[in-house]
Please model this.
Amino acid sequence: MTLDQRTPVQGRAQTPQSPMSKFMILWGVALIALSIIWPRYGFFGFGPLKATPFTLFATASWLVLPFVTMFDTQLRSQLFREILRRRFVIIAMIVWYLWRVFTAFVGEDVVGSLTFLLRQIVYLLPVLFVGLVVFTGTKGRDRAIVTIVISTAIVVAVGAVELATSKTFAQLTGLKFAGDAQLLSLLSASTTRGGSIRLQSVFYHPIVFAQCLAWASPFLVYAMTTRRNVMIRAIAAVTLLVIPYFVLKTDARSGLIALAMTLAMYAGLLVVRRTGLFSLQTVLAGLVALALALAAAQSGQAMMSDLIGGRTAVEAESTKSRSAMFDRGFDEIKASPIVGYGDNRSPEHGGLRSPRGILTIDSAYLSSLLDSGWVGLFLMAVAWFSALIGALRIAILRDASRLDVAAAASLAAVLTVFSILSIMDNISLIFISIVLSAGTWPPTLGSHAVARREPPGKL
Model:
């Protein structure tokens, strides 16, 4: 078992939660829930300032977390312990962000690039560090599952109303958001493709919605099959039942592939770990399971052709556009291969204009390449894929918790969709999966064993 998941010694009273611990639990649950259910474009104006409920919580977390850990030794030791266990991933993440700061200074638009990067750091990184305080350990992980199940059910419910009424979140609520008028006008209008509505729920884009649903699916399976609370199991089951249809209605081929892959990977890892493959063979077996899951998701030459080439003329045109973006991007990076052009400059160098008149680029990996060069792309890959390999390393062990399996599968889903999605809102989902996985790579002290299959918990 990991240090944070040991069963308390019998006869020894458990340390009661301090008021600050209880406060941080409420704060963390609110932050994680808002990161999923509140639209990232849903800013309200406060004079010259603009903020959303999520960005307010995230920004305030940079003050709340140091204050709480300064005066609560238990929370402080837990945060430092969890950071040390994940030190390779966190250091890789920090180095990646520092490189992007450097490329912003030498890029084309210093102020614009730094502003874009600062927003990502301020708004998204608190999800990781607050999560390490609130959502580790058996009780913390149970708490996270409840939050994920309910939050996913909410965004699915919004999608159901959108499907029934053909009205987006902004139209349904009548809220007037602050920001660029043209962008808000486009976001408030129903997204369509070939005359059919594409569900986007509370998200910027239908693909972002599909990515979130694919990420949440293994956690829903975990909650449905292991929890005692009938209400949570029922919500998870109903939500999971409708997710495939909702992903289909987003009309996002990457979402369909990611959903099939993550569920196949969840089931595959449960089977593979029964063979006893572990230690040095763990990562290899995990990668094989991932390859098998991808093959299962495509299921045959005919279906693969449809998914890759497009099932309709409109989708085929979308595929051609993405190919053109990569062609243009690879040509453009030749002029600045090491440092790129600075954060948020990739649309100018590899993007195309959408039918709505917005300049877009359709891959986080291509976007990273153009923004921060080949070095930046390499650093991003080290950070993200070391997290995935660490999660796979633990998930495949015989005595691993099924939650570790779900965390590994969810990470794979998010990273898959990022191959054709450059909107980085769901980096917060990567952070949640990193928090919930007991795995690290390279292995660190205290990560050689994981929580054994826990009995159904009381949620």
